[in-house]
Amino acid sequence: MKALLLTIATAGSMLLTAQAGAAVDAKAAEALAQKSGCLACHTVEKKVLGPAYKDVAAKYKGDKTAEAKLVEKVKKGGSGVWGPMPMPAMGGQVKEADIKTIVQWILSL
């Protein structure tokens, strides 16, 4: 019985730690988006030049290929999905690992 309670307590502690880490990761990813220039054209809540990140997350919710698609879109740029305003290619300016982190954050919204 003690072993079971200890296991439950440990699992609960790990869950709380993971949730706290996720909030820190979200803040770090948002800061990375700011540093990378993403927030000049996007915000989390409302459309600016580009779509709101919450709208992007909603559009791709449940799409298991969304992360790969969006990483490529950020790297190569494009237009037409959210309107006529083109998104410039960011692959030469932002490291791929940073793009992936930002995209994962956007999809988590």
UniProtKB/TrEMBL annotation:
What InterPro entries does UniProt report for this protein, alphabetically?
Cyt_c-like_dom, Cyt_c-like_dom_sf, Cyt_c_ID
Check the record and name the SUPFAM superfamilies matching this protein.
Cytochrome c
One GO MF term attached to the UniProt entry: iron ion binding
Origin, by domain of life? Bacteria
**Pfam families found in the cross-reference section:** Cytochrom_C
Give UniProt keywords alphabetically.
Electron transport, Heme, Iron, Metal-binding, Signal, Transport
Establish whether keyword Chaperone is in the entry: no
* Stretch forming the signal peptide: 1-22
Q: Which residues form the Cytochrome c domain?
A: 24-109
Posttranslational modification = Binds 1 heme c group covalently per subunit.
Q: Where does heme c bind?
A: 38, 42, 87
Q: What is this protein called?
A: Cytochrome C
Q: Which organism is it from?
A: Methylotenera mobilis
